[in-house]
Amino acid sequence: MNNARTVNQSTRQVALCGVLVAGMMLVSASAFALDPKTSTRVDTVTISDVYGEISADNDSTLLVGVEGCQRAMDADADIMVTFSTPDFDVSSNDMVTGVFYYHGVYTFETGRGTGSSPTCTSSGCVDVSSDYISRSSTQAVVNIPFKTLTGFTSAQDCLGEIEKDIFIRLQFYDGSSSDAADAKVTLDLIRPEPLVSFDAVVTQDAMELTWEPGSSNDVDSYRVVYSTEEFAGDDFADNVSGAKSVYVNSTSTYTASTSIAEQTPGTTLWIGVASVDEVGNESILTATQPFDVIETVGYWEYYKQNGGEETGGFCQVSSTAPQGKNTLLLVGLGLCMAGLVRRRKKS
Amino acid sequence: MKNRFLFATILIASTLLFSGQAMAQSLDLIEDDSQSPITGSFELKLGGYYPYRIDEELTAQGQPGAFEEFYGTDNMLYGELVVERYIIRNYGKLGVGGHIGLARRKGEVQTAAAMAGEDSEEATTDVPGETNFRVIPLRASVFYKYDYSAIHHNIPLVPFARAGLDYHMWRVVDGDGETSGNDDTGVSRGARTGWHASLGLQLLLDFVDPATAASFDLSWGINNSYLFGEYMISRVDSFGSQGLDLSDEQWLFGLAFEF
Question: Is the interface score ipTM higher than 0.85?
Fold first, then answer.
């Protein structure tokens, strides 16, 4: 009986392990396809654009949207990748077995979040010219023009509605095995879909918006554009002049703070909303809609409107308080407490 | 009112039941030479608070009650901390105390059209925005606790009475945390003065586990612990002046620790 139970338990454990291993393989496979390769021999990998034209970056990954791409092209920006290698001399080209040495810097492209990592020592990668690489004993720095990296010739290419990952790889070798570390530039040149619809309620102190998002699945914020003057929608928010805007990190509703909602009751506020994806690409605005600013009242306003005589203040002495017994009560209690304290001190 | 009496009856009955069981146990620890000196106490208590006379100022003029319109009629949760100092200890304890409490209620703003009774689309629109009411009562009181029987007759019940002066700070706050009001309405914060009186009954908890009670004294200096109920009447209308009337009659329950 006990043996049967042990066998059953073992079978369940093996099955569970199988499921776990399969799950981990799936996860690791997808992670491998998406993430830059790392190595224990490379301490840190940082990537940035030299002139700060591309705002979105995250350690070893640089996210480039349409506007960032256009600015980088217009500024003829360089992409700089720094590989820190405290454990081996990356300046060395000496082929000594058992000691890692520099093998090369390569680039390769995949579809965004898809594909597999090639073995650059054999094929599938493009050699980066040594003109763009500087090496010391502890780090290799790659300074490559954005144009060269992307193959773009003008800022107009940034409107090509493409998505891809470009990897920059430092490859090193010890005579018998190779290792590598990557930095990644993600080009997301596809703008998100605009909102399907939205509605708003505007008061003198608050603005509440609700909306139905578009079909894009990489939207993570919205840009609300508003003005007391009528303005046209169906255009990019940056092309609207005279309107104010605010970015909203919410999925379907937003209640504005008073700092952007101080409006005059009875006037009209024109509002348009755009989707913004994780890279910062904005959709065109929805068609703008007018909303009447509704007057609201809170407790205090309503109390005063209806004849409440409270005037506030912390040191008030009533001018209408009935004198006599209440004053006597007040004085009596005060004397009582003072007398008790005095008696205690004496004792 | 009936519910209050029913509740009080249940409280007293259950207390007496406890006390009957406790009679057999020693209460010597309440105040003997083995204890550290007892100089005062502190209390934490909770209850409901509703300034039920606050709308009378407007309803007396034939206007609707503003407080009820925005905050409803349910009690607010009220919490209070009390620190007391014993001055005389003969047949019971006489002393003075200081209190600080807090109650608050969140309401929603209404459209002006709705409050004006208009029958329009705007009047029925659900608008965003909050209006919050906060009260911080400060009290100074004189009290008397009859614990002679608890000390000398092993009856773990301590009736007490309090009376004193009140200073209630209040504030109406918009949803953004700013105080309501403008040049026309004035600023919506201030304070109202008044008085309070209360009666209560404490149940000495030390008899449940005298050894733990003794170690509580050694570790923390807490001589005795009590569970208590209290009925308090407060008149906070700046002694009859016009304005917000923050008076209430409330039941409070909590824990008291003598140190």
Answer: no
